[in-house]
Design brief:
This protein has 769 residues and is mainly beta. It has three domains: 73 residues, Phage tail protein beta-alpha-beta fold (3-Layer(bab) Sandwich); 123 residues, Beta Complex (Ferric Hydroxamate Uptake Protein, Chain A, domain 1); 537 residues, Beta Barrel (Maltoporin, Chain A). Helix content is 5%, strand content 55%. It has a 22-stranded antiparallel barrel. Strands 10-15-16-13-14 form a five-stranded mixed sheet, with no helix packed on it. It has a three-stranded mixed sheet with strand order 3-7-6. Helix 1 packs antiparallel against helix 3. The longest helix is centred in the first third of the chain and has 12 residues.
Length: 769
């Protein structure tokens, strides 16, 4: 049965109603009949956009004097519009109870799969989080950090907003930022956000949902997806209706300052049914909570971020639906958010400030159209990403005079992909080609704050061209197979910035790689199903600055590759059933792991650290006790081992991979009830446990972190178009070390820790217009 409530892409120009109805039926996967020749000859305005079948029919029948009659979910007959009957006479007798029109819930499609596979038949692990306006209003300013609180298998460092590395399911290479490609690919819709940079921490305001695909995703996404993919899906411009939303909040952090956030969205149809623009703007100030007594400063680690997103949608441009957009996000932090053991709580003394700035600009164009029953999607984007970090390097040369280390990373990323997909729900397929070019220039200075000296930097150019394809088809009535592959040609070129003629290592690298995937989904009758999945991925090598004291000024790091096998099960439907369970066991084999590291002097460098294995188990249980109360439990277990370390990273005993806890759990109780007509009260309480982990590999970085429990609570009251919220994070004001790093030049003392943000209370208001 076709799902008439789920959004599909329609591109049907105006024309005779009979022809429009036939096209609508083909693109919507239903049967639409117009038996009356007079009605079939009437002029229809057509239908365009990512809309449901019902909405498409409403648009196509506008002004035709006809209406649609549904015989079932897949058969529609167009008939002459019936006259509206006069209202019945008033009666004192009670009216019979109205039977509600119950519609089946739409299937959730994993659009990040590029095959549009339903969530409950996708042969692999995927996390799907749909946002409501209340959650967005309270949490959008937190960006990716807010998402990590929802998903235990999604981890991150805690160096600070817009400077963190993300990890999925324990695929963690190191805790530091450098020239290696990210292990997690990040996307805004179909647009690639990163390649070898930290998380830009985009504001989540006006986002529709997110999809987290467990990696490696080498077949569909190529490099920078060893751990998986995070896909942020924003709300699309509405070409028919004007709307606006706004949100504002004020917060107070214990022992810290006052913060605030604001965001707004406006959607305007420029030409009804043809052109619309959607604009989002936001600003956030996160209060600092660390003091510097030596300089007489308070709340030194405050952060301010601001930005915009704007998307223009054009319908029927030579038969195409075109989205043209830009996004900017700027983040500035006054100082590091770490402290030192032995000092007074939430204090740290430094000779100089250690600010950070992240400037992110994105421009993109996406075009799509229907090719019969298949869909063509082509996306081109350009990213400019500039990062500036300053660290207090006093004492690095044995003196007591103040010294400053500054690192600037200027990144340009060009990305293009064109793909065609089709086949419907039973036999989905996708085929496409992609091009990527990434240039990263890393420059560094070290010395007196007023007279820094340029030291060795490096520039890397990486280009990739790939062909990929994946398809699924039934093998038996209850068994569906999936197979796919990606052939990639990658070229890497690296040079030292201050010595472009350096030949200490051959700076060129050309590679031809194949990444494959195999999957089976077993769906017997009933609510139970299972899958097995095998995936491959890799990252190209590059050139990096060698550690200080090395005879070479540069060092080439080799490509690494990862393969993962998993077995998963599903019980119940998360949207329909009172109880649903998801669980998966996985094994990953990771060879020649690339890692960004810190040497004994405090300077960053990059190397291959060896090969490792990861065993893990993750799962989720959702239990709807009643229509008002839902309990959720999500947890993971992770056992990693660097079983074949390179000689310089070898230590006695077993070494785990960095930054990922051996275990973690999140428990949530959510309650929601209508307390009066048009008034809804809701609340949520959550507890998260983050287990023990280590900062890195090797003797220098074998520093413990994690092992803490934190709780959050929140409540909302919604009055139709307006809502009020009160949220308390870290309600018990837990002091714990979330990340054992803040400054590379004092790391060897092993006394750094990044405390959790103290208890913070936020009062918010949001509105829809």
């Amino acid at each position: 049965m076709a799902d008439v409530a789920y959004a599909r892409h329609f591109n049907i120009p105006p024309g005779r109603l009979g022809e429009v109805a036939a096209a609508l039926g083909a693109q919507g996967g239903i049967t639409v009949a117009v038996a009356d020749p007079d009605l079939a000859s009437r002029r229809s305005p057509g239908a365009r956009g990512n809309i449901s079948v019902r909405t498409a029919l409403t648009r196509a029948l506008r002004g035709t004097g006809t209406e649609a009659v549904f015989y079932d979910g897949a058969t529609v007959r167009i008939v002459r519009q019936r006259a509206t009957p006069p209202p019945p006479p008033r009666s004192t007798r009670p009216a019979p109870a109205k039977i509600p029109d119950i519609q089946p819930l739409p299937d959730i499609l994993v659009t990040a799969s590029k095959q549009n596979i339903p969530l409950d038949t996708y042969p692999g692990s995927v996390k799907f989080v749909e946002f409501n306006s209340g959650w967005i209003a309270s949490n959008a300013a937190g960006g990716t950090a807010a998402i990590t609180k929802l998903l235990p298998t999604l981890g991150a460092t805690n160096l600070g907003p817009a400077r963190n590395k993300l990890f999925i399911r324990g695929i963690a290479d190191s805790s530091f930022n450098g020239p290696t490609q990210a292990t997690v690919g990040q996307y805004l819709g179909d647009v690639r956000l990163n390649y070898n940079a930290p998380d830009p921490n985009l504001n989540l305001y006006d986002m529709k949902h997110i999809e987290v695909l467990v990696g490696p995703q080498g077949t569909l996404y190529g490099a920078s997806s060893l751990g998986g993919v995070i896909r942020l899906v924003p709300n699309a411009p509405d070409i028919d209706n004007a709307s606006a939303t706004a949100s504002a909040g004020i917060s107070s952090t214990r022992f810290g300052g006052v913060g605030g956030d604001g965001a707004a969205m406006i959607n305007l149809p420029v030409i009804d049914g043809r052109i619309a623009v959607r604009f989002v703007t936001f600003v956030t100030h996160e209060a600092g909570y660390i003091d510097d007594p030596s300089r007489g400063l308070r709340n030194i680690n405050s952060t301010t971020s601001y930005g915009q997103r704007m998307t223009w949608r054009f319908e029927d441009i030579l038969g195409l639906t075109v989205d043209l957009g830009i996004a900017t996000h700027n983040t500035a932090t006054g100082d590091g958010q770490y402290t030192l053991r032995g000092d007074e709580p939430l204090t740290r003394s430094n000779s100089i400030s250690q600010p950070f700035k992240n400037t992110y600009y994105l421009g993109y164009l996406t075009a799509r159209r229907m090719l019969g029953k298949a869909e063509l999607v082509s996306t081109t984007s350009v990213v400019r990403h500039d990062l500036r970090s300053v660290f207090d390097a006093s004492g690095h040369d044995g003196s007591t005079s103040p010294a400053q280390f500054e690192e600037n990373n200027n990144i340009t990323l060009f990305s293009h992909e064109t793909r065609v997909s089709g086949g419907g729900k039973k036999t989905p397929w996708v085929a496409g080609a992609s091009l990527i070019y990434n240039a990263s220039a890393l420059s560094r200075t070290l010395g007196k704050p007023d007279a820094p000296v340029q030291i060795t930097g490096v520039v890397n150019y990486q280009a990739e061209a790939a062909l990929f394809g994946q398809f699924s088809r039934p093998i038996l009535s209850t068994l569906t197979g999936t197979v796919g592959g990606r052939l990639t040609y990658a070229r890497s070129v690296g040079n030292l910035l201050d010595n472009p003629m350096d030949k200490s290592n051959e700076p060129f690298s050309n590679e031809l790689r194949f990444s494959g995937t195999l999957g089976l989904d077993w769906h017997p009758p009933g609510s139970f199903s299972a899958f097995v999945h095998y995936q491959q991925g890799y990252r190209a090598g590059g050139l990096a600055v060698a550690p200080s004291g090395s005879a070479l000024e540069s060092r080439k790091f080799a490509a690494d590759d990862l393969s993962m096998s998993e077995i998963g099960l599903r019980l119940g439907n998360r949207e329909k059933d009172r109880l649903s369970v998801r669980a998966a066991f996985f094994f990953a084999d990771w060879n020649h792991i690339q890692a960004d590291l810190i040497d004994n002097s405090g300077l960053p460098y990059t190397a291959n650290i060896g090969s490792g294995r990861i065993y893990g188990l993750d799962g989720e249980i959702i239990w709807r006790l009643s229509s008002a109360l839902t309990l959720t439990a999500a947890a993971f277990l992770n056992d990693s081992d660097l079983y074949a370390p390179e000689a310089e990273f070898a230590t006695p005993g077993e070494q785990t991979l960095p930054n990922i806890a051996r275990d973690g759990i999140r428990l949530v109780a959510g309650w929601r009830r209508n307390i009066a007509p048009g008034v809804t009260l809701s609340s949520e309480a959550s507890v998260r446990y983050i287990g023990k982990s280590r900062l890195g590999v090797g003797p220098l970085l074998d520093i413990p972190q994690g092992d803490y429990t934190v709780g959050d609570v929140g409540a909302r009251i919604d009055f139709g178009r307006f809502g009020l919220s009160l949220d308390v994070t870290n309600i018990s004001d837990i002091r714990a070390n979330s990340f054992a790093f803040g400054n590379p030049f004092s790391l060897a003392r092993r006394d750094q820790m990044t405390p959790l943000r103290p208890r913070t209370i936020r009062l918010g208001i949001n509105a829809q217009f």
